[in-house]
Amino acid sequence: xxxxxxxxxxxxxxxxxxxxxxxxxxxxxxxxxxxxxxxxxxxxxxxxxxxxxxxxxxxxxxxxxxxxxxxxxxxxxxxxxxxxxxxxxxxxxxxxxxxxxxxxxxxxxxxxxxxxxxxxxxxxxxxxxxxxxxxxxxxxxxxxxxxxxxxxxxxxxxxxxxxxxxxxxxxxxxxxxxxxxxxxxxxxxxxxxxxxxxxxxxxxxxxxxxxxxxxxxxxxxxxxxxxxxxxxxxxxxxxxxxxxxxxxxxxxxxxxxxxxxxxxxxxxxxxxxxxxxxxxxxxxxxxxxxxxxxxxxxxxxxxxxxxxxxxxxxxxxxxxxxxxxxxxxxxxxxxxxxxxxxxxxxxxxxxxxxxxxxxxxxxxxxxxxxxxxxxxxxxxxxxxxxxxxxxxxxxxxxxxxxxxxxxxxxxxxxxxxxxxxxxxxxxxxxxxxxxxxxxxxxxxxxxxxxxxxxxxxxxxxxxxxxxxxxxxxxxxxxxxxxxxxxxxxxxxxxxxxxxxxxxxxxxxxxxxxxxxxxxxxxxxxxxxxxxxxxxxxxxxxxxxxxxxxxxxxxxxxxx
Length: 559
Ligand code: MFK
Hints:
Blueprint: H1 21-30, H2 33-51, H3 53-60, E1 67-71, E2 77-82, H4 85-96, H5 101-105, H6 112-123, H7 131-147, H8 150-160, E3 171-174, E4 190-194, E5 197-207, E6 214-221, E7 232-237, E8 248-253, E9 265-276, H9 283-319, E10 321-322, E11 325-326, H10 331-362, H11 368-399, H12 412-418, H13 428-439, H14 442-455, H15 462-488, H16 490-524, H17 528-538, H18 549-557
Parallel strand pairs: 3-6, 4-6
Antiparallel strand pairs: 1-2, 4-5, 5-9, 6-7, 7-9, 8-9, 10-11
Helix pairs in contact: 2-3, 2-6, 6-9, 6-10, 7-8, 7-9, 9-10, 9-11, 10-11, 10-16, 10-17, 11-12, 11-13, 11-16, 13-16, 14-15, 15-16, 15-17, 16-17
The chain binds decanoyl-CoA (MFK).
Protein backbone atom coordinates (compact mmCIF):
# COMPACT_ATOMS: atom_id res chain seq x y z
CA UNK A 1 0.00 0.00 0.00
CA UNK A 2 1.35 3.48 -0.84
CA UNK A 3 2.02 5.76 2.13
CA UNK A 4 -0.75 8.24 2.91
CA UNK A 5 0.26 11.66 1.58
CA UNK A 6 1.67 14.10 4.10
CA UNK A 7 -0.90 16.48 5.53
CA UNK A 8 0.33 19.51 7.41
CA UNK A 9 -1.47 20.23 10.70
CA UNK A 10 -2.89 23.77 10.54
CA UNK A 11 -2.24 26.36 13.26
CA UNK A 12 -4.67 26.41 16.16
CA UNK A 13 -5.74 28.84 18.81
CA UNK A 14 -6.68 28.25 22.44
CA UNK A 15 -8.28 30.61 24.93
CA UNK A 16 -6.86 33.93 23.79
CA UNK A 17 -6.83 35.49 27.24
CA UNK A 18 -5.24 32.56 29.05
CA UNK A 19 -2.54 32.32 26.41
CA UNK A 20 -1.69 36.03 26.44
CA UNK A 21 1.33 36.54 28.66
CA UNK A 22 1.70 40.19 27.62
CA UNK A 23 -1.87 41.24 28.41
CA UNK A 24 -1.96 39.31 31.66
CA UNK A 25 1.32 40.73 32.96
CA UNK A 26 0.28 44.24 31.92
CA UNK A 27 -3.05 43.96 33.75
CA UNK A 28 -1.36 42.55 36.86
CA UNK A 29 1.02 45.50 36.93
CA UNK A 30 -1.56 48.18 36.18
CA UNK A 31 -4.80 47.25 37.91
CA UNK A 32 -5.61 47.13 41.60
CA UNK A 33 -5.93 43.42 42.51
CA UNK A 34 -9.63 43.73 43.26
CA UNK A 35 -10.38 45.25 39.84
CA UNK A 36 -8.38 42.50 38.18
CA UNK A 37 -10.30 39.82 40.06
CA UNK A 38 -13.60 41.42 39.06
CA UNK A 39 -12.84 41.71 35.37
CA UNK A 40 -10.95 38.47 34.84
CA UNK A 41 -14.06 36.32 34.23
CA UNK A 42 -15.18 38.68 31.42
CA UNK A 43 -11.75 38.44 29.79
CA UNK A 44 -11.62 34.67 30.14
CA UNK A 45 -15.03 34.42 28.48
CA UNK A 46 -13.98 36.69 25.63
CA UNK A 47 -10.69 34.83 25.25
CA UNK A 48 -12.62 31.59 24.92
CA UNK A 49 -14.97 33.00 22.29
CA UNK A 50 -12.12 34.57 20.34
CA UNK A 51 -10.00 31.44 20.20
CA UNK A 52 -12.93 29.07 19.81
CA UNK A 53 -16.41 29.65 18.43
CA UNK A 54 -15.76 33.03 16.78
CA UNK A 55 -12.48 31.95 15.20
CA UNK A 56 -14.05 28.78 13.80
CA UNK A 57 -16.97 30.75 12.41
CA UNK A 58 -14.53 33.24 10.90
CA UNK A 59 -12.82 30.45 8.97
CA UNK A 60 -16.15 29.03 7.74
CA UNK A 61 -17.46 32.50 6.91
CA UNK A 62 -14.39 33.42 4.89
CA UNK A 63 -16.04 33.95 1.52
CA UNK A 64 -19.20 35.67 2.73
CA UNK A 65 -19.50 39.37 2.11
CA UNK A 66 -22.23 41.92 2.81
CA UNK A 67 -24.83 42.16 0.09
CA UNK A 68 -26.52 45.37 -1.01
CA UNK A 69 -30.05 45.09 -2.45
CA UNK A 70 -31.00 48.53 -3.79
CA UNK A 71 -34.60 47.81 -4.81
CA UNK A 72 -37.35 45.40 -3.80
CA UNK A 73 -39.19 43.34 -6.39
CA UNK A 74 -41.65 46.20 -7.02
CA UNK A 75 -39.09 48.87 -7.63
CA UNK A 76 -39.16 50.48 -4.20
CA UNK A 77 -35.78 51.81 -3.11
CA UNK A 78 -34.92 49.81 0.00
CA UNK A 79 -31.09 49.75 0.16
CA UNK A 80 -31.08 46.63 2.26
CA UNK A 81 -27.67 45.43 3.44
CA UNK A 82 -27.38 41.81 4.52
CA UNK A 83 -24.47 41.25 6.85
CA UNK A 84 -22.29 38.16 7.10
CA UNK A 85 -23.18 35.50 9.72
CA UNK A 86 -20.11 36.37 11.80
CA UNK A 87 -21.02 40.04 11.86
CA UNK A 88 -24.52 39.20 13.07
CA UNK A 89 -23.06 37.12 15.86
CA UNK A 90 -20.41 39.72 16.64
CA UNK A 91 -23.09 42.40 17.05
CA UNK A 92 -24.83 40.31 19.71
CA UNK A 93 -21.61 39.52 21.54
CA UNK A 94 -20.47 43.14 21.42
CA UNK A 95 -23.64 44.35 23.09
CA UNK A 96 -23.90 41.55 25.63
CA UNK A 97 -20.25 41.74 26.64
CA UNK A 98 -20.46 45.52 26.91
CA UNK A 99 -17.75 46.44 24.42
CA UNK A 100 -19.07 50.00 24.42
CA UNK A 101 -21.06 49.99 27.66
CA UNK A 102 -18.06 49.14 29.83
CA UNK A 103 -16.47 52.52 29.09
CA UNK A 104 -19.61 54.52 29.89
CA UNK A 105 -20.91 52.58 32.90
CA UNK A 106 -17.46 53.23 34.40
CA UNK A 107 -17.82 50.54 37.06
CA UNK A 108 -14.08 50.48 37.53
CA UNK A 109 -13.62 54.24 37.45
CA UNK A 110 -10.37 55.23 35.73
CA UNK A 111 -9.66 51.59 34.86
CA UNK A 112 -12.85 51.18 32.84
CA UNK A 113 -11.10 52.00 29.58
CA UNK A 114 -8.41 49.43 30.29
CA UNK A 115 -11.14 46.87 30.91
CA UNK A 116 -13.04 47.85 27.77
CA UNK A 117 -10.01 47.86 25.50
CA UNK A 118 -8.75 44.54 26.89
CA UNK A 119 -12.07 43.07 25.77
CA UNK A 120 -11.82 44.85 22.43
CA UNK A 121 -8.27 43.59 21.92
CA UNK A 122 -9.33 39.98 22.52
CA UNK A 123 -12.50 40.27 20.42
CA UNK A 124 -11.25 42.22 17.40
CA UNK A 125 -9.13 39.67 15.50
CA UNK A 126 -11.98 37.16 15.54
CA UNK A 127 -14.65 39.68 14.59
CA UNK A 128 -13.83 40.35 10.93
CA UNK A 129 -13.44 44.03 11.86
CA UNK A 130 -16.76 44.40 13.62
CA UNK A 131 -14.56 46.68 15.71
CA UNK A 132 -15.06 49.28 12.95
CA UNK A 133 -18.70 50.09 13.76
CA UNK A 134 -17.90 49.71 17.44
CA UNK A 135 -15.08 52.25 17.21
CA UNK A 136 -17.37 54.77 15.53
CA UNK A 137 -20.10 54.04 18.08
CA UNK A 138 -17.71 54.74 20.92
CA UNK A 139 -16.52 57.89 19.14
CA UNK A 140 -20.08 59.10 18.62
CA UNK A 141 -21.01 58.43 22.24
CA UNK A 142 -17.93 60.34 23.38
CA UNK A 143 -18.67 63.27 21.04
CA UNK A 144 -22.24 63.53 22.26
CA UNK A 145 -21.15 63.43 25.90
CA UNK A 146 -18.55 66.14 25.26
CA UNK A 147 -21.09 68.26 23.34
CA UNK A 148 -23.42 68.53 26.32
CA UNK A 149 -26.36 68.44 23.87
CA UNK A 150 -28.89 67.02 26.32
CA UNK A 151 -31.71 66.11 23.89
CA UNK A 152 -29.30 64.18 21.64
CA UNK A 153 -27.58 62.58 24.62
CA UNK A 154 -30.95 61.47 26.00
CA UNK A 155 -31.99 60.03 22.64
CA UNK A 156 -28.81 58.31 21.52
CA UNK A 157 -26.51 57.55 24.43
CA UNK A 158 -28.69 54.89 26.11
CA UNK A 159 -28.92 53.13 22.74
CA UNK A 160 -25.24 53.40 21.83
CA UNK A 161 -24.24 51.95 25.20
CA UNK A 162 -26.97 49.33 25.50
CA UNK A 163 -26.16 45.75 26.52
CA UNK A 164 -29.36 44.38 24.99
CA UNK A 165 -28.63 43.42 21.35
CA UNK A 166 -32.23 44.15 20.35
CA UNK A 167 -31.93 47.74 21.62
CA UNK A 168 -28.28 48.52 20.92
CA UNK A 169 -27.40 51.02 18.20
CA UNK A 170 -24.19 51.56 16.34
CA UNK A 171 -23.10 54.82 14.76
CA UNK A 172 -21.40 55.80 11.53
CA UNK A 173 -18.83 58.56 11.06
CA UNK A 174 -19.41 60.17 7.69
CA UNK A 175 -16.51 62.47 6.96
CA UNK A 176 -14.78 61.50 3.77
CA UNK A 177 -15.90 63.01 0.48
CA UNK A 178 -14.49 62.45 -3.00
CA UNK A 179 -12.83 65.87 -2.92
CA UNK A 180 -11.15 65.39 0.44
CA UNK A 181 -10.21 62.29 2.38
CA UNK A 182 -7.62 63.95 4.57
CA UNK A 183 -8.52 67.56 3.80
CA UNK A 184 -11.97 67.42 5.35
CA UNK A 185 -12.31 71.19 5.17
CA UNK A 186 -13.07 70.79 1.44
CA UNK A 187 -16.38 69.04 2.26
CA UNK A 188 -19.04 69.88 -0.34
CA UNK A 189 -22.15 68.59 1.43
CA UNK A 190 -24.41 71.49 2.30
CA UNK A 191 -26.93 71.95 5.08
CA UNK A 192 -30.12 73.93 4.50
CA UNK A 193 -32.34 75.19 7.24
CA UNK A 194 -35.78 74.47 5.77
CA UNK A 195 -38.59 75.85 7.87
CA UNK A 196 -36.71 75.37 11.10
CA UNK A 197 -35.26 71.92 10.37
CA UNK A 198 -31.86 71.09 8.89
CA UNK A 199 -31.54 68.95 5.78
CA UNK A 200 -28.33 67.70 4.21
CA UNK A 201 -27.52 67.50 0.48
CA UNK A 202 -24.36 65.92 -0.86
CA UNK A 203 -22.33 62.78 -1.45
CA UNK A 204 -20.38 60.93 1.22
CA UNK A 205 -17.71 58.84 -0.39
CA UNK A 206 -16.44 56.38 2.22
CA UNK A 207 -19.02 55.57 4.85
CA UNK A 208 -18.07 52.51 6.85
CA UNK A 209 -20.56 50.06 8.39
CA UNK A 210 -23.55 51.58 6.68
CA UNK A 211 -26.05 49.49 8.65
CA UNK A 212 -25.69 51.80 11.66
CA UNK A 213 -28.83 53.42 13.02
CA UNK A 214 -27.24 56.88 13.29
CA UNK A 215 -24.21 58.81 12.16
CA UNK A 216 -22.28 61.95 12.96
CA UNK A 217 -21.38 63.87 9.84
CA UNK A 218 -20.15 67.21 8.57
CA UNK A 219 -21.92 69.63 6.26
CA UNK A 220 -21.65 73.33 5.41
CA UNK A 221 -24.65 75.43 6.36
CA UNK A 222 -25.54 77.55 3.34
CA UNK A 223 -23.73 80.88 3.50
CA UNK A 224 -20.89 79.62 5.72
CA UNK A 225 -17.27 80.28 4.69
CA UNK A 226 -15.03 77.58 3.16
CA UNK A 227 -12.72 75.38 5.26
CA UNK A 228 -13.20 73.30 8.37
CA UNK A 229 -14.49 76.23 10.41
CA UNK A 230 -17.39 76.73 8.00
CA UNK A 231 -18.60 73.17 8.56
CA UNK A 232 -21.03 72.10 11.24
CA UNK A 233 -21.31 68.77 13.03
CA UNK A 234 -24.65 67.04 12.47
CA UNK A 235 -26.49 64.09 13.97
CA UNK A 236 -28.39 61.91 11.50
CA UNK A 237 -30.68 58.91 11.91
CA UNK A 238 -30.39 56.61 8.94
CA UNK A 239 -33.96 55.27 8.84
CA UNK A 240 -37.25 57.11 9.31
CA UNK A 241 -40.09 56.10 11.62
CA UNK A 242 -41.23 53.47 9.04
CA UNK A 243 -37.69 51.97 8.87
CA UNK A 244 -37.26 53.40 5.36
CA UNK A 245 -33.98 55.07 4.27
CA UNK A 246 -34.06 58.61 5.62
CA UNK A 247 -33.56 60.47 2.33
CA UNK A 248 -30.30 58.54 1.95
CA UNK A 249 -29.40 56.48 -1.10
CA UNK A 250 -26.67 53.84 -1.08
CA UNK A 251 -25.04 54.22 -4.50
CA UNK A 252 -22.86 51.15 -4.06
CA UNK A 253 -20.62 49.26 -1.68
CA UNK A 254 -16.87 49.71 -2.14
CA UNK A 255 -14.73 46.94 -3.62
CA UNK A 256 -11.81 47.09 -1.15
CA UNK A 257 -8.41 45.42 -0.73
CA UNK A 258 -9.37 44.14 2.73
CA UNK A 259 -11.91 44.61 5.54
CA UNK A 260 -14.35 43.13 3.07
CA UNK A 261 -16.92 42.20 5.71
CA UNK A 262 -17.47 45.88 6.44
CA UNK A 263 -20.21 47.32 4.24
CA UNK A 264 -18.51 50.55 3.16
CA UNK A 265 -20.78 52.67 1.02
CA UNK A 266 -20.94 55.65 -1.26
CA UNK A 267 -23.96 57.61 -0.11
CA UNK A 268 -26.17 60.27 -1.57
CA UNK A 269 -27.78 62.56 0.99
CA UNK A 270 -30.98 63.84 -0.61
CA UNK A 271 -32.37 66.20 1.97
CA UNK A 272 -31.53 63.98 4.93
CA UNK A 273 -33.05 65.35 8.17
CA UNK A 274 -30.26 66.27 10.58
CA UNK A 275 -29.74 68.00 13.90
CA UNK A 276 -26.90 70.24 14.93
CA UNK A 277 -24.72 68.76 17.63
CA UNK A 278 -23.11 72.08 18.60
CA UNK A 279 -23.44 75.37 16.75
CA UNK A 280 -23.37 76.04 13.02
CA UNK A 281 -19.55 76.25 12.69
CA UNK A 282 -16.26 74.56 13.72
CA UNK A 283 -17.31 71.12 12.55
CA UNK A 284 -13.75 69.80 12.26
CA UNK A 285 -12.90 70.86 15.79
CA UNK A 286 -16.17 69.42 17.10
CA UNK A 287 -15.74 66.02 15.48
CA UNK A 288 -12.20 65.72 16.92
CA UNK A 289 -13.29 63.88 20.10
CA UNK A 290 -14.70 61.18 17.84
CA UNK A 291 -11.47 61.00 15.84
CA UNK A 292 -9.35 60.69 18.93
CA UNK A 293 -11.45 57.78 20.20
CA UNK A 294 -11.46 55.95 16.85
CA UNK A 295 -7.70 56.49 16.58
CA UNK A 296 -7.29 54.81 19.94
CA UNK A 297 -9.38 51.88 18.68
CA UNK A 298 -7.15 51.83 15.62
CA UNK A 299 -4.01 51.50 17.76
CA UNK A 300 -5.54 48.72 19.86
CA UNK A 301 -6.71 46.96 16.70
CA UNK A 302 -3.18 47.12 15.27
CA UNK A 303 -1.83 45.52 18.40
CA UNK A 304 -4.57 42.89 18.43
CA UNK A 305 -3.89 41.89 14.84
CA UNK A 306 -0.15 41.59 15.49
CA UNK A 307 -0.89 39.36 18.44
CA UNK A 308 -3.22 37.16 16.35
CA UNK A 309 -0.66 36.81 13.57
CA UNK A 310 2.04 35.89 16.06
CA UNK A 311 -0.19 33.39 17.89
CA UNK A 312 -0.83 31.60 14.60
CA UNK A 313 2.78 31.79 13.43
CA UNK A 314 4.13 30.54 16.76
CA UNK A 315 1.69 27.64 16.92
CA UNK A 316 2.50 26.72 13.34
CA UNK A 317 6.23 26.85 14.04
CA UNK A 318 5.71 24.15 16.67
CA UNK A 319 3.82 21.92 14.23
CA UNK A 320 5.77 22.45 11.02
CA UNK A 321 8.86 20.30 10.62
CA UNK A 322 11.56 21.28 8.12
CA UNK A 323 15.16 20.20 7.77
CA UNK A 324 14.74 17.70 10.58
CA UNK A 325 13.15 19.78 13.34
CA UNK A 326 10.09 21.89 14.13
CA UNK A 327 10.58 25.43 12.83
CA UNK A 328 10.44 26.81 16.35
CA UNK A 329 13.73 25.02 17.09
CA UNK A 330 15.47 26.61 14.14
CA UNK A 331 17.54 29.54 15.42
CA UNK A 332 16.86 31.71 12.40
CA UNK A 333 13.12 31.19 12.50
CA UNK A 334 13.11 31.78 16.26
CA UNK A 335 15.04 35.01 15.71
CA UNK A 336 12.47 36.18 13.16
CA UNK A 337 9.56 35.41 15.49
CA UNK A 338 11.29 37.11 18.40
CA UNK A 339 11.85 40.29 16.39
CA UNK A 340 8.15 40.42 15.55
CA UNK A 341 7.23 39.72 19.16
CA UNK A 342 9.37 42.66 20.30
CA UNK A 343 7.59 45.01 17.88
CA UNK A 344 4.20 43.77 19.07
CA UNK A 345 5.10 44.16 22.74
CA UNK A 346 6.34 47.72 22.22
CA UNK A 347 3.16 48.56 20.31
CA UNK A 348 1.00 46.93 22.98
CA UNK A 349 2.39 49.09 25.76
CA UNK A 350 2.09 52.31 23.78
CA UNK A 351 -1.52 51.65 22.77
CA UNK A 352 -2.55 50.69 26.29
CA UNK A 353 -0.71 53.67 27.78
CA UNK A 354 -3.01 55.89 25.70
CA UNK A 355 -5.98 53.81 26.87
CA UNK A 356 -4.92 54.38 30.50
CA UNK A 357 -4.65 58.13 29.93
CA UNK A 358 -8.08 58.19 28.28
CA UNK A 359 -9.64 56.35 31.22
CA UNK A 360 -7.94 58.63 33.73
CA UNK A 361 -9.05 61.71 31.84
CA UNK A 362 -12.69 60.55 31.65
CA UNK A 363 -12.75 59.70 35.36
CA UNK A 364 -11.57 63.24 36.13
CA UNK A 365 -8.23 62.03 37.47
CA UNK A 366 -5.97 63.57 34.84
CA UNK A 367 -4.40 66.97 35.33
CA UNK A 368 -3.75 69.45 32.53
CA UNK A 369 -0.40 67.86 31.67
CA UNK A 370 -1.90 64.39 31.36
CA UNK A 371 -4.69 65.74 29.14
CA UNK A 372 -2.06 67.30 26.93
CA UNK A 373 -0.13 64.06 26.91
CA UNK A 374 -3.25 62.18 25.83
CA UNK A 375 -3.77 64.64 22.98
CA UNK A 376 -0.16 64.24 21.77
CA UNK A 377 0.16 60.50 22.22
CA UNK A 378 -3.10 59.54 20.50
CA UNK A 379 -1.86 60.32 16.96
CA UNK A 380 1.62 59.01 17.82
CA UNK A 381 0.22 55.67 18.99
CA UNK A 382 -2.06 55.39 15.98
CA UNK A 383 0.64 56.10 13.42
CA UNK A 384 3.42 54.08 15.06
CA UNK A 385 1.34 50.93 15.59
CA UNK A 386 -0.24 51.31 12.13
CA UNK A 387 3.18 50.96 10.53
CA UNK A 388 4.22 48.13 12.83
CA UNK A 389 1.16 45.99 12.14
CA UNK A 390 1.68 45.94 8.38
CA UNK A 391 5.37 45.05 8.74
CA UNK A 392 4.68 42.34 11.32
CA UNK A 393 1.81 40.77 9.38
CA UNK A 394 3.84 40.73 6.21
CA UNK A 395 6.41 38.66 8.14
CA UNK A 396 3.65 36.50 9.60
CA UNK A 397 2.58 35.55 6.07
CA UNK A 398 6.17 34.69 5.23
CA UNK A 399 6.43 32.49 8.35
CA UNK A 400 3.95 30.14 6.68
CA UNK A 401 5.82 29.99 3.40
CA UNK A 402 3.50 29.23 0.47
CA UNK A 403 0.62 28.39 2.81
CA UNK A 404 0.58 32.01 3.94
CA UNK A 405 -0.08 33.03 0.33
CA UNK A 406 -3.09 30.73 -0.07
CA UNK A 407 -6.50 32.22 0.52
CA UNK A 408 -8.30 29.34 2.20
CA UNK A 409 -5.79 29.19 5.04
CA UNK A 410 -7.41 32.47 6.10
CA UNK A 411 -3.95 34.03 6.44
CA UNK A 412 -3.78 36.49 3.51
CA UNK A 413 -6.84 38.25 4.88
CA UNK A 414 -4.83 39.25 7.94
CA UNK A 415 -2.38 41.26 5.86
CA UNK A 416 -5.03 42.77 3.60
CA UNK A 417 -7.08 43.85 6.61
CA UNK A 418 -4.05 45.27 8.40
CA UNK A 419 -3.25 47.54 5.46
CA UNK A 420 -6.25 49.71 6.31
CA UNK A 421 -4.85 50.59 9.71
CA UNK A 422 -2.24 53.12 8.54
CA UNK A 423 -4.80 54.63 6.16
CA UNK A 424 -8.21 55.22 7.73
CA UNK A 425 -8.64 57.55 10.66
CA UNK A 426 -5.81 59.64 9.27
CA UNK A 427 -2.83 58.40 7.25
CA UNK A 428 0.64 58.22 8.77
CA UNK A 429 1.55 61.59 7.30
CA UNK A 430 -1.67 63.31 8.35
CA UNK A 431 -1.17 62.03 11.87
CA UNK A 432 2.47 63.08 11.88
CA UNK A 433 1.27 66.61 11.12
CA UNK A 434 -1.41 66.24 13.78
CA UNK A 435 1.35 65.34 16.23
CA UNK A 436 3.07 68.63 15.47
CA UNK A 437 -0.26 70.43 15.81
CA UNK A 438 -0.79 68.80 19.20
CA UNK A 439 2.73 69.53 20.41
CA UNK A 440 2.30 73.24 19.63
CA UNK A 441 5.97 73.94 20.24
CA UNK A 442 8.97 72.58 22.06
CA UNK A 443 7.17 72.87 25.42
CA UNK A 444 5.08 69.85 24.41
CA UNK A 445 8.27 67.94 23.72
CA UNK A 446 9.62 68.82 27.17
CA UNK A 447 6.41 67.44 28.67
CA UNK A 448 6.92 64.17 26.83
CA UNK A 449 10.51 63.93 28.01
CA UNK A 450 9.41 64.55 31.61
CA UNK A 451 6.79 61.82 31.33
CA UNK A 452 9.36 59.36 30.03
CA UNK A 453 11.46 60.23 33.08
CA UNK A 454 8.53 59.16 35.34
CA UNK A 455 7.93 56.01 33.31
CA UNK A 456 11.55 54.93 33.63
CA UNK A 457 11.92 55.94 37.28
CA UNK A 458 11.72 52.46 38.79
CA UNK A 459 14.00 50.75 36.26
CA UNK A 460 17.01 49.38 38.19
CA UNK A 461 18.26 46.26 36.43
CA UNK A 462 21.62 47.23 34.82
CA UNK A 463 20.78 45.83 31.39
CA UNK A 464 17.54 47.82 31.38
CA UNK A 465 19.12 50.93 32.83
CA UNK A 466 21.49 51.12 29.87
CA UNK A 467 18.49 51.19 27.59
CA UNK A 468 16.79 53.99 29.54
CA UNK A 469 19.80 56.11 28.63
CA UNK A 470 19.23 55.22 24.97
CA UNK A 471 15.59 56.38 25.22
CA UNK A 472 16.63 59.67 26.78
CA UNK A 473 19.30 60.24 24.15
CA UNK A 474 16.89 59.59 21.29
CA UNK A 475 14.27 61.93 22.74
CA UNK A 476 16.93 64.59 23.18
CA UNK A 477 17.88 64.19 19.50
CA UNK A 478 14.20 64.41 18.51
CA UNK A 479 13.80 67.59 20.57
CA UNK A 480 16.90 69.09 18.96
CA UNK A 481 15.62 68.21 15.52
CA UNK A 482 12.25 69.81 16.23
CA UNK A 483 13.88 72.95 17.50
CA UNK A 484 16.15 73.21 14.47
CA UNK A 485 13.41 72.38 11.99
CA UNK A 486 11.07 74.98 13.42
CA UNK A 487 13.76 77.59 13.04
CA UNK A 488 14.38 76.52 9.42
CA UNK A 489 10.73 76.97 8.51
CA UNK A 490 7.48 75.16 7.78
CA UNK A 491 8.86 73.04 4.90
CA UNK A 492 11.67 71.58 6.98
CA UNK A 493 9.33 70.78 9.84
CA UNK A 494 6.73 69.18 7.58
CA UNK A 495 9.29 67.10 5.67
CA UNK A 496 10.61 65.50 8.85
CA UNK A 497 7.28 65.16 10.66
CA UNK A 498 6.81 61.43 9.99
CA UNK A 499 10.35 60.49 11.02
CA UNK A 500 10.02 62.65 14.09
CA UNK A 501 6.67 61.17 15.17
CA UNK A 502 7.85 57.59 14.56
CA UNK A 503 11.03 58.24 16.52
CA UNK A 504 9.08 59.60 19.47
CA UNK A 505 6.62 56.69 19.19
CA UNK A 506 9.38 54.10 19.21
CA UNK A 507 11.23 55.81 22.06
CA UNK A 508 8.05 55.71 24.13
CA UNK A 509 7.45 52.09 23.26
CA UNK A 510 10.92 51.25 24.51
CA UNK A 511 10.48 53.26 27.72
CA UNK A 512 7.17 51.51 28.46
CA UNK A 513 8.69 48.12 27.64
CA UNK A 514 11.53 48.81 30.10
CA UNK A 515 9.08 49.61 32.89
CA UNK A 516 7.15 46.40 32.20
CA UNK A 517 10.38 44.40 31.96
CA UNK A 518 11.57 45.63 35.35
CA UNK A 519 8.19 44.72 36.88
CA UNK A 520 8.17 41.27 35.30
CA UNK A 521 11.66 40.53 36.58
CA UNK A 522 10.70 41.58 40.10
CA UNK A 523 7.18 40.18 40.36
CA UNK A 524 7.14 37.20 38.04
CA UNK A 525 10.82 36.32 37.69
CA UNK A 526 10.04 36.42 33.98
CA UNK A 527 12.78 37.66 31.65
CA UNK A 528 10.72 37.63 28.47
CA UNK A 529 9.78 41.32 28.60
CA UNK A 530 13.48 42.11 29.14
CA UNK A 531 14.32 40.13 26.04
CA UNK A 532 11.62 42.00 24.13
CA UNK A 533 13.01 45.36 25.29
CA UNK A 534 16.56 44.44 24.28
CA UNK A 535 15.48 43.20 20.88
CA UNK A 536 13.25 46.19 20.30
CA UNK A 537 16.15 48.54 21.04
CA UNK A 538 18.40 46.57 18.71
CA UNK A 539 15.85 46.90 15.91
CA UNK A 540 16.26 50.65 16.03
CA UNK A 541 14.51 53.49 17.76
CA UNK A 542 15.75 56.65 16.08
CA UNK A 543 14.46 56.84 12.52
CA UNK A 544 15.04 60.57 12.39
CA UNK A 545 17.93 60.58 9.96
CA UNK A 546 19.46 63.89 9.06
CA UNK A 547 17.00 65.34 6.56
CA UNK A 548 18.04 67.12 3.44
CA UNK A 549 15.05 68.87 1.99
CA UNK A 550 16.59 69.38 -1.44
CA UNK A 551 17.34 65.63 -1.73
CA UNK A 552 13.79 64.78 -0.76
CA UNK A 553 12.23 67.10 -3.30
CA UNK A 554 14.54 65.96 -6.15
CA UNK A 555 13.82 62.28 -5.49
CA UNK A 556 10.10 62.69 -4.94
CA UNK A 557 9.36 64.46 -8.23
CA UNK A 558 11.22 62.26 -10.71
CA UNK A 559 12.27 58.66 -10.41
C1 MFK B 1 -11.02 49.56 14.17
C2 MFK B 1 -10.36 50.84 14.21
C3 MFK B 1 -11.16 52.09 13.96
C4 MFK B 1 -11.89 52.03 12.72
C5 MFK B 1 -12.92 53.08 12.47
C6 MFK B 1 -12.85 53.49 11.07
C7 MFK B 1 -14.10 53.78 10.39
C8 MFK B 1 -14.24 55.18 9.89
C9 MFK B 1 -13.60 55.41 8.61
C10 MFK B 1 -13.41 56.86 8.45
O1 MFK B 1 -14.23 57.69 8.73
S1 MFK B 1 -11.93 57.27 7.81
C11 MFK B 1 -11.99 59.05 7.80
C12 MFK B 1 -11.13 59.55 8.81
N1 MFK B 1 -10.72 60.88 8.41
C13 MFK B 1 -9.79 61.47 9.08
O2 MFK B 1 -9.24 60.96 10.03
C14 MFK B 1 -9.42 62.85 8.61
C15 MFK B 1 -7.94 63.01 8.53
N2 MFK B 1 -7.59 64.43 8.45
C16 MFK B 1 -7.27 65.13 9.56
O3 MFK B 1 -7.26 64.61 10.67
C17 MFK B 1 -6.88 66.54 9.33
O4 MFK B 1 -5.81 66.83 10.17
C18 MFK B 1 -8.03 67.51 9.66
C19 MFK B 1 -9.29 67.11 8.94
C20 MFK B 1 -8.33 67.58 11.15
C21 MFK B 1 -7.56 68.87 9.16
O5 MFK B 1 -8.66 69.75 9.02
P1 MFK B 1 -8.47 71.32 9.17
O6 MFK B 1 -9.81 71.97 9.08
O7 MFK B 1 -7.40 71.80 8.25
O8 MFK B 1 -7.96 71.38 10.67
P2 MFK B 1 -7.36 72.55 11.54
O9 MFK B 1 -7.78 73.89 11.03
O10 MFK B 1 -5.91 72.32 11.75
O11 MFK B 1 -8.08 72.25 12.91
C22 MFK B 1 -9.39 72.68 13.18
C23 MFK B 1 -9.55 72.60 14.68
O12 MFK B 1 -9.66 71.23 15.06
C24 MFK B 1 -8.37 73.14 15.45
O13 MFK B 1 -8.86 73.67 16.66
P3 MFK B 1 -9.12 75.26 16.87
O14 MFK B 1 -10.30 75.55 16.00
O15 MFK B 1 -9.41 75.38 18.31
O16 MFK B 1 -7.88 75.94 16.42
C25 MFK B 1 -7.56 71.90 15.75
O17 MFK B 1 -6.73 72.07 16.87
C26 MFK B 1 -8.67 70.92 16.03
N3 MFK B 1 -8.24 69.54 15.83
C27 MFK B 1 -7.88 68.96 14.67
N4 MFK B 1 -7.58 67.67 14.89
C28 MFK B 1 -7.74 67.45 16.21
C29 MFK B 1 -8.17 68.65 16.81
N5 MFK B 1 -8.44 68.73 18.11
C30 MFK B 1 -8.27 67.65 18.86
N6 MFK B 1 -7.86 66.46 18.34
C31 MFK B 1 -7.58 66.33 17.03
N7 MFK B 1 -7.18 65.16 16.56
